[in-house]
Amino acid sequence: MVAVSCLCIALLWCGSVQAEKRWDGTKWIEERPAVLGTPRGDIATIRALLEAERVKEAVIKVEGFLARHAHSPLCEEAMNLAGCAKIAQGHYWDAYEWFERQIEEFPNGPLLSRALDREYQIGEAFLQGRKRRVMRVLKLSAEGEGVEILDKITEHSPASFLARKALLRIAKYHFDEGEFDESVRRYDEFVEQYPH
Prior knowledge:
Elements: H1 2-16, E1 20-23, E2 28-31, H2 39-51, H3 55-68, H4 75-89, H5 92-105, H6 112-127, E3 131-134, E4 138-141, H7 143-156, H8 161-176, H9 180-193
Antiparallel strand pairs: 1-2, 3-4
Helix pairs in contact: 2-3, 2-4, 3-4, 4-5, 4-6, 5-6, 6-7, 6-8, 7-8, 8-9
C-alpha cells in the first residue's frame, strides 16, 4: 500500500514538471514549465493577474519583476503588460509612460509595434477629449499631449503605416479645431515624407 502511494506521488510529481513544447518557427522545442521566481514564471503570473482583471496587483508585480530580472528580455513584455494594465485602470498618461519606457529600452524589440499601436490609441483618446489625471485629483484637457504622442510615433517608426496614420490624424485634428495654417503645414509635411 505504501509502495503504491509512493508510486502515485512520484507519477504526479513527474507529470507536473513534464516539459512543454513550443514552436520556434522551424521546429518544436521542449521547455520546462514556468517556475515562480524565474522570469518566465513571474511573467506568467503577471499575465494571469491581467486576465483576472487584477490590474493594480499586476503593475506591482511588474515593478518587482523589473527589479529582480533587470537583464531578462522578458522585461519588454513586462513593461508592455504594465501599460495595458494602466489603460485598463483608465490611467492613460501612466500607460503612455510605460510604453515609452519600453520603446526606449527595447527600440527594436518584438513588441515595438504593439506599444506604438497602444500609444496611438492613447493619443487618439486624448484628441477626442479624454482628460489627463494630474496628482490623482485634477483632470485636465490633454489634446496637446495627444498631438505630442502621435508626433512621437512618427519619430519612433517613421516608415510605418502607423506613423503615416498618426501624421494624418494630427493634420485632421488641427483642421477640425480651425487651425488651418497648422493643418496645411502638417498635410505638407505628410506629402513631403510620404510622396508615394
